[in-house]
Write a structure and sequence with these properties.
Layout: E1 4-11, H1 14-26, E2 32-45, E3 48-62, H2 66-76, E4 85-88, H3 94-103
Antiparallel strand pairs: 1-3, 1-4, 2-3
Helix pairs in contact: 1-2
Length: about 110
């Protein structure tokens, strides 16, 4: 069974979130993207503490397509330095993990 990865990112608008989700799923780099509105982020940027309302994206992909998914995310993301963290999925319902693997196109050989 394919190893599943969860990619986490945030963006500054629902339009940006939807554009990233649509692009990654359409290109079959992600099986699914959950968009969670109303996230308050507190972070240091350019020497100051900033606060922003953001949308959180939970992107499901495979280990094999992780690099391509991150490249697609970077290309679609509006930030100069996008957040992109990859988490290993240790376990899950086998049918769901198989669906993720089937929904993401394997790398061409």
């Amino acid at each position: 069974m394919a190893e599943v990865r969860l990619v986490v990112t945030t963006v500054d608008s629902s339009e940006a979130a939807q554009g990233i989700a649509d692009g990654l799923v359409a290109d079959r780099l992600a099986a699914c993207v959950n968009i969670l509105p109303g996230v308050t982020s507190v972070y240091r940027w350019q020497g100051s503490v900033a606060v922003a309302e953001e949308w959180l994206l939970l992107i499901k992909t495979t280990a094999e397509r992780q690099a391509a998914c991150l490249a697609g995310l970077a290309a679609l993301h509006p930030y100069d330095v996008p957040e992109a963290m990859v988490l290993d999925v240790a376990a899950g319902l086998p049918a769901y993990l198989a669906w993720v693997a089937d929904s993401v196109v394997p790398e061409a050989e």
